[in-house]
């Protein structure tokens, strides 16, 4: 088959969380470069970050006028579960053809503290954003995609889907559960041509890992264990996300694709 056909996302609509910066921003731009329209989920803020939105607008400005691609923002605080319950339908309202073909759950937060000191408020915040909001968005997507017998859901998991980590009990619990949720949804929806898969980043140079990057001892320990010899960059997720969003992965179901420079293999 023609690879350009296999990986094309022309006429596809993507709903993506966590795309204001880092991995999410790189994924949103890669999906748009493959031909998709993009709906961004962003928090309410006095001074919201429009960098990804502006980059996509600039990209789409070069489109053929006959190609009706769009980039839109729907505002939602993913810690507010009542807001989350309505955001998928609001995205449908602004998406071309009132359809969402691909859901990318990339938003996530991290809170660090020894387990004996980890606060209940922080626990709930991490679990709500990293797990429950993903469940609610995926359920809404399933209700839309299953009857249409077409769709892709891509969840951003973690190395801590497999490992326990240190001083991150809530994050490890959420990402471990997210891996199982990905498989559970794939078990139900694969027969309806809705593929649900996960991407598990390794150690990546993003805001979430600032404390590790600033700690010379931990930076050395981690770096020495990565076979690729470097930390990952957001750009390293462009290929994996387009693959899982495209026709090229139609028989890939319930997979947790590790993108870690070889860390797990070590």
TrEMBL record:
<keyword id="KW-0560">Oxidoreductase</keyword>
<dbReference type="InterPro" id="IPR002347">
    <property type="entry name" value="SDR_fam"/>
</dbReference>
<feature type="domain" description="Ketoreductase">
    <location>
        <begin position="12"/>
        <end position="192"/>
    </location>
</feature>
<dbReference type="GO" id="GO:0016616">
    <property type="term" value="F:oxidoreductase activity, acting on the CH-OH group of donors, NAD or NADP as acceptor"/>
</dbReference>
<protein>
    <submittedName>
        <fullName>NAD(P)-binding protein</fullName>
    </submittedName>
</protein>
<dbReference type="Pfam" id="PF13561">
    <property type="entry name" value="adh_short_C2"/>
</dbReference>
<keyword id="KW-0521">NADP</keyword>
<comment type="similarity">
    <text>Belongs to the short-chain dehydrogenases/reductases (SDR) family.</text>
</comment>
<dbReference type="InterPro" id="IPR057326">
    <property type="entry name" value="KR_dom"/>
</dbReference>
<dbReference type="InterPro" id="IPR036291">
    <property type="entry name" value="NAD(P)-bd_dom_sf"/>
</dbReference>
<dbReference type="InterPro" id="IPR020904">
    <property type="entry name" value="Sc_DH/Rdtase_CS"/>
</dbReference>
């Amino acid at each position: 088959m023609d690879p350009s056909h296999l990986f094309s996302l022309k006429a596809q609509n993507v709903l993506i969380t966590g795309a204001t910066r880092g991995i999410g921003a790189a994924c949103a731009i890669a999906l748009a470069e493959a031909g998709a329209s993009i709906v961004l989920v962003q928090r309410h803020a006095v001074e919201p970050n429009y960098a990804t939105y502006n980059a996509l607008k600039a990209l789409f400005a070069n489109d053929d006028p006959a190609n009706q691609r769009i980039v839109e923002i729907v505002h939602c605080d993913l810690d507010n579960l009542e807001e989350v319950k309505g955001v998928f339908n609001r995205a449908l309202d602004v998406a071309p053809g009132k359809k969402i073909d691909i859901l990318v759950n990339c938003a996530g937060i991290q809170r660090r503290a020894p387990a004996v000191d980890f606060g209940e408020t922080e626990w709930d915040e991490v679990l709500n954003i990293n797990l429950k909001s993903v469940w609610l968005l995926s359920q809404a997507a399933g209700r839309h995609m299953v009857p249409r017998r077409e769709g892709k859901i891509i969840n951003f998991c973690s190395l801590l889907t497999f490992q326990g980590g240190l001083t991150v009990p809530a994050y490890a619990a959420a990402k471990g559960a997210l891996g199982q949720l990905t498989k559970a949804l794939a078990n139900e929806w694969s027969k309806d041509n809705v593929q649900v898969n996960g991407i598990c980043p390794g150690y990546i140079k993003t805001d979430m890992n600032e404390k590790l990057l600033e700690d010379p001892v931990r930076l050395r320990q981690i770096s020495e264990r990565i076979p690729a010899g470097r930390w990952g960059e957001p750009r390293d997720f462009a290929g994996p996300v387009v693959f899982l969003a495209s026709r090229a992965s139609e028989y890939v179901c319930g997979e947790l694709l590790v993108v870690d420079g070889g860390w797990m293999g070590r």
